[in-house]
Sequence to fold (248 residues):
Amino acid sequence: MSLFITFEGPEGSGKSTQARILYETLQAQGYPVILTREPGGTRIGEWIRQILVDLRHTEMSPATEVLLFSAARAQLVNELIGPYLAEGGIVLCDRYADSTYAYQGYGLNHNLDDLHTITAFATGGLMPDLTIYLDIDAERGLERKRQARPAPSPLAPHLAALQESRPPTYGKPEWNRLDARELSYHQRVADGFRKLMLREPERWRRMDAERSIEELAHLIVEAVAPLLERVQQYNPPPNQSLPDAAHE
Ligand SMILES: Nc1ncnc2c1ncn2[C@@H]1O[C@H](COP(=O)(O)OP(=O)(O)O)[C@@H](O)[C@H]1O
Ligand SMILES: [Mg+2]
Fold:
C-alpha cells in the first residue's frame, strides 16, 4: 500500500513550509517518501510552470490556464507520483487537483463538472488519501508571501536540475502572475476551498494556519500517523545504516 498526501490552501498559508517539515520527519523515520510540487515537479512541468507564472503573460485565456495546469499534472502523475505510489511509497505534493477546482473553478468561474472531466483525464482519477488544508485569511496569506525570504528546500537541487540552464526559482519569494490577481479573486478561492472540504470532509484536515510553524507540524504528524501503517519502513532507516566514523 502507498500513501498520497497533498497540501492545499491560499498563498502564504505555509504549504511549502509544512510539506518540507513533514518530508524531513518521515525521511528521518525511515519511510520511503518523496516531495514534489504543482505546477512542476518534472522537467516538462517546470517549463509549463514558467509559462503559467510569467507576469508578462497577461493575454493567457482562462481555458489555456486550466489546460496548462492539467498538462503539468498529467506529466507529474505519469512520471513521478504514479510510479512512486506503485512501489508502495509516500508522495507529498505541494498543491494538486483541488487547487484547480478552487482557483480555476471558484476563482475564475469555470464549470466544475468540466474541470472534473479534464482532471480525471489528466490524472487517471488519482486523488489524495489525505489533504492538509492550511486555512488563512487570503489577505493575511498574501502579506506573508510578500514578506517571505528565500528558504532552503529539499526540492531545490532537484528542481535546479530540472530547470537546466534556467535560474532556479524554488525557495525564492516568487511574486507571480497568479498572485498578482485582485484580492476578491483570492477570497473566492478561499471560499471555494471551504466548499470543497464540505463535499469530502473525510479526506481533508483543516488547520488554522495562524498557529506557529512548530504547532502545525505537530498537528500534521498526528493527522498522518494513523495512515502510516500501510507503508513499509526501510529497516533500518537509510540515514542510520552507516557506521559512525567518529567511533571507529
Ligand atoms: N505558521 C506560520 N506562522 C508564521 N509564518 C509562517 C508560518 N508558516 C509559514 N510562514 C511564513 O510565511 C511565508 C509563506 O510560507 P510558505 O510555506 O511559502 O507558504 P505557501 O507555500 O503556502 O505559499 C514564509 O515566509 C514562511 O516562513
Ligand atoms: Mg509554496
Notes: The chain has a mean pLDDT of 89.
